[in-house]
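Protein entry
_____________
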Amino acid sequence: MFKPLISALAQFVAATAGRNMTKAAYVAVGVGLLSMVLLTVGPAYETAPRWVDALLWACLAYFVFEWVVRLRHMRRTERLALYMSSSAGIVDAIGALAVPVALVLGVELRTAWLLSVLWVLKVVPGIPGLRQLRRVLVLESGPLVSVLVIFLMVVFLASVAEYFLERDVQPQTFGSVPAALWWAVVTLTTTGYGDVVPVTPLGRMVAALVMISGLGVFGLWTGILATGFAAETRRDNFLKTWESVSKVPFFAALGPAAIADVTHMLRTMELPARTMIIRKGTQGDCMYFIAAGAVEVDLPGKKVQLGEGAFFGEMALLGNNMRGANVSTTKVSRLLVLDLVDFRVLMARHPDLAETIDAEAKRRTLENR
């Protein structure tokens, strides 16, 4: 009875083995974490202990089953070693084995279920922003480590200074370097709780310098990460736009340098079906290239279909800047947008493109008469 269901579920998991997460896994993570939280709330758990336990065991069974199926699938495709050493494989193994291993080692059941909090790690490989953060941390590791060294130097120097200045007047608080070290960390991170403060004039001067240094250190970390994220975002956008530009036949004759030039000028627009792009009578300040999808141009007495590789909206940039027709998508489309200023720069740099666009504009003008 259950064999066909298990077989179908195994085929589904195997088919999605290359993905980071499935919808079922997201549901299992959410239900499992909620059940683990309810397990720690006495009144809530006592109202329905069997349901909470059943949900936890069901989620664990799903993660174990998913992990086994993925191992089997990767072994068949000869990628088992790669999977087991990957972050996704390690996370899957932790999600499946953490609680059972704790139970085998004799950990009490309710305590062992606390390890189900590790299931949240299964969400990490599927978040693009976290992968981007990992790349930023790797690329900016040098500057980040340098700032960390500065942080540690300030903490240690401040703790020794406060120990020397405050040990006689506050022996319980600053009676040792480790105690002063805790004060220095709390102060440098600007999270001081107020019950440990220097009382000597020199001690307060050192504390002021530590607080100012803390603002500078965390400002440097923030600036490094923000700059790294901005660079990674520009890189990703450039690669996506490059891929779209290279697929447009209109730019096929351009060399790599020219395509890179065009890519810097274009911006990508993703639109669903039946979306109005251009409205007749409005002022035009950009033209569009169709990287994927199709649009419909509503001309007087007829409608013209434009598909992948075509462009539109150039009429308003070559002469009268008033839009002469309504244009809307007929299906999900990806458009490349070229603004007026960039249009003029591009035409000046690439006269052959200017001639092609001008010839197409004249042809459409004759057709529309």
